[in-house]
Automatic annotation (TrEMBL):
SUPFAM superfamilies recorded: TPR-like (SSF48452)
TPR repeats: 2-35, 36-69, 278-311, 386-419
This protein's name: Tetratricopeptide repeat protein
PANTHER family associated with the record: CELL DIVISION CYCLE 16,23,27, CELL DIVISION CYCLE PROTEIN 27 HOMOLOG
InterPro entries registered for this protein in UniProt: TPR-like_helical_dom_sf, TPR_rpt
Record keywords, A-Z: TPR repeat
Length: 537
């Protein structure tokens, strides 16, 4: 009966129905509690379920009944390992391997257990035995090297690295590994000699050429360093990510004729071999930006974004450059929409999206994006909070939430009382609402003192004065605004006409109202003003 129940348990175990397998093995154990195989299977299932302490009980029973069974011992080693008792697990493996040569394949597990226990000398001994069994194998040698470095035995670590270099000639990975150890320990000349020897035997190794470039640069041998990096870049086999990063690093160096000439050579080489690599295009785009060639930079950034899944830094470069170049806001919005979809946890992209929508008079959508920016930012970055509050004030005003707009502006001015954008818009919207006109005057007056030729600020101040019925001074500032604006907007011409009307110059007022027709942001009453030759508020 116990055998039949055991067979049923084994069948369900093979079907990965562990609960039913456990049930049948337990039933089998009730019939035959001293059967080692049954106890072993129960221990296995309990171990799989991470019920380690219970697994220990059944595993010990199995080993007690059949102490020479390899599999019973291995399950006990796993139990002890999970109980963070690596030395007990190691003892089991040592015993297994001492019994027969067939179990030598557990030597790597033994080394890992000694490492977990912090027994580095025993781990090294185990790895030496493994090397005798397997020969020179990179993972073993590298593990020994790491242990020697932890023990501050630099000579032994270097010897292990050299062993790999000798065993696998032409393998740049092992040369680079040893070069890194030598360089990090101040043995740059030895690192250079190692690389040069390898390149002499196997010249077409761009990774080593890049390593040698860095070493010679460190030593101040600029001529040799530049020669090596040019050779490395001329290879299509060198990872374009490595090229792009090296290019970006050089771009950050102090500008000089020599640096610029090197960048030109490297750029030509990169684009020849990797014309459609996103990282390369981004790096070259950064160079164009440094050169002030924003249109070309934008073109490269946009191509990079379309080639690869968007990178947040590149996407930000695309969006900010588009804003700087005054691109169409609907076009900008295509990128900001992608950015918020791809990186919803980046507040700056919600800010850009809200700003692009606001510029298109998409009030509710703009408010939603800007409120999301505040939510995501959660005051972590005060600069973003200030920028968003400035923009969301405009968005709130656009949708008729005047009080919310003024609260947002106040929040910005509490932190930064000289914010130009907020001071101007706050003053203008207060003048439109005919509220707190003295406050509006103080804000706009301060702006025109700081920026006496800014036509937008002059127009705002003129309109605040108009609402205060100071028509003479309003005329002075409005004329200065028109003088400093190459192409005055419709609303500026209309404002000037309104001021002239209140100064009794009706004919002149009508003339300027007519100039305002068809212009931006004119009032709904403009046509009626012209028709009736009369001012309407």
């Amino acid at each position: 009966m116990a055998s039949r129940l055991f067979i049923d348990g084994q069948r369900f175990l093979m079907l990965e129905d562990y609960d039913r397998a456990y049930f049948y093995f337990q039933k089998a154990r009730e019939k035959s509690p001293d059967e080692a195989a049954i106890n072993f299977k129960i221990a296995e299932i309990l171990l799989r379920a991470n019920r380690v302490d219970q697994a220990l009980e059944f595993g010990m029973k199995a080993v007690e009944i059949d102490p020479d069974n390899k599999y019973y011992n291995l399950v006990m080693a796993e139990v002890y390992s999970k109980q963070n008792q690596p030395m007990k697990a190691a003892e089991i493996l040592e015993n297994l391997m001492s019994n027969t040569d067939e179990n030598q394949n557990y030597i790597l597990d033994l080394a890992q257990l000694y490492l977990a226990a912090g027994e580095f000398d025993k781990a090294l001994s185990a790895l030496d035995r493994a090397e005798e069994y397997y020969g020179t194998v990179a993972p073993l040698t590298l593990q020994k090297q790491r242990i020697y470095l932890r023990k501050n035995n630099l000579a032994a670590a270097i010897a292990e690295g050299q062993k790999l270099v000798d065993a696998y000639p032409g393998n740049s990975e092992y040369v680079l590994n040893l070069v890194e150890i030598l360089f990090n320990n101040g043995r740059t000349d030895e690192a250079i000699a190692l690389v040069e020897n390898s390149l002499a035997s196997y010249p077409n190794q761009p990774e080593l050429q890049m390593a040698a470039y860095a070493l010679y640069k460190e030593k101040g041998n600029v001529d040799r360093a530049e020669s090596l990096i040019k050779e490395a870049f001329s290879s299509p086999d060198l990872d374009p990510k490595v090229k792009a990063q090296a290019f970006a690093d050089i771009l950050q160096e102090t500008k000089s004729a020599r640096r610029d000439a090197l960048l030109e050579t490297l750029e030509t080489s990169m684009l020849e071999h990797h014309p459609n690599d996103a990282g390369v295009l981004t790096a070259v785009g950064d160079k164009r930006l440094f050169e002030g060639k924003k249109e070309q930079a934008l073109e490269l950034y946009q191509k990079s974004v379309r080639l690869d899944p968007p990178n947040p830094q590149v996407m930000q470069g695309v969006i900010t450059t588009m804003f700087e170049l005054g691109k169409d806001f609907s076009e900008i919005e295509t990128f900001t929409s992608t950015a918020v979809d791809e990186f919803p946890d980046r507040a700056e992209f919600w800010f850009f999206d809200g700003t692009a929508k606001l510029a298109q008079k998409k009030g509710p959508e703009s408010v939603a994006s800007l409120e999301k920016a505040l939510e995501v930012n959660a005051n972590k970055n005060q600069q973003i909070t200030l920028l968003v509050n400035g923009q969301i004030g405009d968005a709130y005003h656009l949708v008729g939430r005047k009080e919310d707009a003024f609260k947002s502006y106040d929040a910005v001015l509490q932190v930064n009382p000289t914010d130009e954008h907020v001071l101007n818009n706050y003053a203008y919207y207060l003048s439109l609402a005919k509220e707190n006109l003295e406050k509006a005057k103080t804000m706009s007056e301060g702006l025109v003192k700081r920026f006496p030729k800014n036509s937008t600020y002059l127009d705002t101040h003129a309109w605040v004065l108009f609402q205060l019925k100071d028509y003479s001074n309003a005329k002075v500032y409005m004329e200065r605004a028109l003088e400093n604006e190459e192409k005055p907007s419709g609303v500026m011409w209309e404002h000037y006409g309104d001021i002239l009307y209140h100064l009794g110059q009706r004919n002149e007022a009508v003339t300027y109202w007519k100039k305002a027709e068809g212009g931006d942001d004119v009032s709904e009453q403009l046509s009626q003003k012209i028709k009736d030759r009369k001012y309407y508020d």
